[in-house]
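User: These chains co-purify. Model them together.
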Amino acid sequence: MQRGFATSEYRARLKAAQLAMARHDFAALLLTSEPDVRYFTGFQTRFWESPSRPWFLVVPQEGELIAVIPSIGEPLMRRTWVEDIRTWSAPDPFDDGISLLTEALRNVAGAEKIGVPSGLGTHLRMPLADFGRLQSAGLTFSDDAGLMGQLRAVKTEAEIEKIAQTCTIAGRAFDRMGEVARQGAKLDAVFRGFQRLLLEEGADWVPYVAGGAGPHGYSDVISPAAPDPLRMGDVLMLDTGAVWDGYFCDFDRNFAIGVPARQTGAAWDKLLEAAQAGLEAAQPGAEASDVWRVMAAIVGSGEEAGRLGHGLGMQLTEGLSISPRDHTVLEEGMVITLEPGIGTADGMMLVHEENIVIREGGAQILSPWANGPMPVI
Amino acid sequence: MQRGFATSEYRARLKAAQLAMARHDFAALLLTSEPDVRYFTGFQTRFWESPSRPWFLVVPQEGELIAVIPSIGEPLMRRTWVEDIRTWSAPDPFDDGISLLTEALRNVAGAEKIGVPSGLGTHLRMPLADFGRLQSAGLTFSDDAGLMGQLRAVKTEAEIEKIAQTCTIAGRAFDRMGEVARQGAKLDAVFRGFQRLLLEEGADWVPYVAGGAGPHGYSDVISPAAPDPLRMGDVLMLDTGAVWDGYFCDFDRNFAIGVPARQTGAAWDKLLEAAQAGLEAAQPGAEASDVWRVMAAIVGSGEEAGRLGHGLGMQLTEGLSISPRDHTVLEEGMVITLEPGIGTADGMMLVHEENIVIREGGAQILSPWANGPMPVI
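Assistant: Joint model of the two components:
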């Protein structure tokens, strides 16, 4: 499959952003996060792992993108479609790109409003003191009113293909779980082995792996793995956010080590039923909360129990939550996870997760949809 | 090797922070980033990969830590030494922990100064609009004056052991490079294979891999790998930030595919010479800029060419830069990288990197120190 996107796709993204900016009266957007910068530029590097250097993208309401970046990134940015690239030798303890950025913003925005993503799920990826310097320079910033989140939430076919590709890769890795997980295998070794399988099956990298194991499931889904051996009768869950060409999958699989307990099987059936109901409810025009409601009714999840899915794409989780308080209206092209969880015995739980894309006439499945009894290892 | 730290170590970190806070007149610190929260609590999860939820740690000038976190993290936080844990069901689009956090901060700080890491290399990992809400609630925030960075820069013996362990793991993976890299192997497959080797040798995960290949080196060190085959005469470089128990290594290795060109060999010798000079200059009391100067003189690096190393620990890069503008004084227990680079032909370069810890009487080597001719594959 082809990597990257056609320049026409980046140009369409920019144009859509500029139309929305005009509606919101933003003279410019200031973007600082990896996915926001990549969304418009295609600038893709794992170097964001280093927190030492900020990266700035200025999106003017009219005209072309301006990248204000550390010089170490110039060769890579030159390979994108961005032409206006301004660099400095970072990190500079006295002026880490701020005078350069101030000038760029002043030229395109003057004293007019500059949108900065500021809402749920966003972070300003630059030193707070440097943002204060921009404000003191007479620039006017305001919340981007969710504009970036809305643009990124609806995926193009090219984006959906990449997420589907990542799901396929992870599906193949899950199919090989028997190679790394068995009675007596230690959970931390299983985590390592699973990451290795994901790479062998074609993932570029594996930013996220979580999981758990126990006779009635697991107590949480975010803890690192301990070196505890898998026991006969355990349920093993592994959840991954792997990446191919900058796009995530995010789904899990549950496995029974030997024969699952009877109540575990019943809980499993409920999870499959909830995922199926979520799939059917995830229609264009429905709210995220509607999808939550049908799944929550089946698994018996209360309002305070947390979300049962979320948006997915350039980040492991992004955008909407499948929760009672999220009234985002689903649109064709949105990619989401369905992630019902259910309590079992001893305060334990099971969680099941699938990835889908919203389509007219019924959501399309991206992850290899689980059916039937829990797979046995 | 034992995972985690003794509670006494966390208590000592808290005490040192509280003494520094008293000197700076901070009634509290507000911490939002993964390493800052983990530094005091030991809370370790890859769930930070999800940007949807903020995590807050309040460090009062007197008394115990207060964790204000999404309820999904409560079971894991309960396994740390933190006792005061306050949770909400996140993400909440109307109040994502802000009223809970406001109350916690108001109780310990009132209208007094609350330190927030705001300088070079830091980010506020929470929505900017929510930070505005805290400010509007009458709380007073100011830059932490580099306090967190200074605390984290000097490592304990237990921390150094973990970094050394990660270096050992990566060293073993590099020793096996011949299994994945050879003439004709595609660079993207080599990247995947190298990550697999790191996992097999015991890395918990591999947040960072970069590299490049070409007859005279590479044009930059941050680009993702293309599916181009390695050719006879290429220099292959792979650079990794792998993690064991939450601590990074960060070093690279260069390999000659077949016999390296003569001028490549000469550049390689200069890099080894520069690393050796950096090692000898990295004494307690020297400035970061002093270490830069001796290395830059050997590789012919100008003031604008970027840094030749940096701090290392809970992040791939943290704290000081080995650069002409960084006058940080080296102290015993600081872990740094020495990363000289040198230009070759056609605008290409070679970069070499080692990890060391500053000690009285001479820095101690943590990565398997490279010597002699460039290894040939």
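The longest helix of chain A spans residues 262-281.
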